[in-house]
Amino acid sequence: MTxxxxxxxxxxxxxxxxxxxxxxxxxxxxxxxxxxxxxxxxFPDLQNFRALQVEGFRRVFAHTAPIFFERGIARLETxxxxxxxxxxxxxxxxxxxxxxxxxxxxxxxxxxxxxHEFRFLAVRPVSLPGALLCSADTAxxxxxxxxxSPDQEALAIICGRWTDEEYKARRCPPDEFKRRxxxxxxxxxxxxxxxxxRAYLRHCVLAAQHVGPKAGDSFLDSSFxxxxxxxxxxxxxxxxxIMLEQPPPHLATRYGG
Length: 257
Fold this sequence. Notes:
Elements: E1 24-29, H1 36-42, E2 47-64, H2 66-70, E3 80-102, H3 105-114, E4 119-123, E5 156-160, H4 164-170, H5 174-180, E6 195-196, H6 198-211, H7 213-221, E7 223-224, H8 232-238
Parallel strand pairs: 1-5, 2-7, 3-6
Antiparallel strand pairs: 1-3, 2-3, 4-5
């Protein structure tokens, strides 16, 4: 099966279709993975950390994330418990970071573990208008790698919106769903009645700004609440205190952008 932009990776074996001649695959980051610190916490041997654009997608805060409960930063009483996913949206585009990791069983397992509740999609990033954007302290090419020409960008893996029905049927059996969600008082994953987890939102905004001004603007204007109408820029104008809140001390580095 030949994969194209927007196609689903239906199982673990499909990941190997994205393996390049060096035995590596590309990951597209749009939330926490905009931060190289966050990316290297799971993928310490990543290479070629770079900023590109994915067309035909938007970011949406529309699902619950058990990691926020485990880390003590979810607020169930206000439903500020949401993380980000991407979903197809004709006419939209998002600035992402892309990096390369070994396409091995261990790395595929690491992707699945970190991004357990997502549907995985193949996307073909394109170059940004103008110069490659990365701030002076965030080099676009790391670990001795050489960034591919924008015209040669391979398909990358991105985390897409799923449904509870598909998630339960294909990846999360009842006992695991209970452990991950029900034990935290959450009965649905993908939903439209949630708001962004505050510490996570602040982290993502800072990470995007560290990549560069185009990435920062893209995050604010191409990321939406679950209503698909309110942009994050508009939401933060209503709630500027979010950006002033510091994460708990033990998470200061992890959620520091």
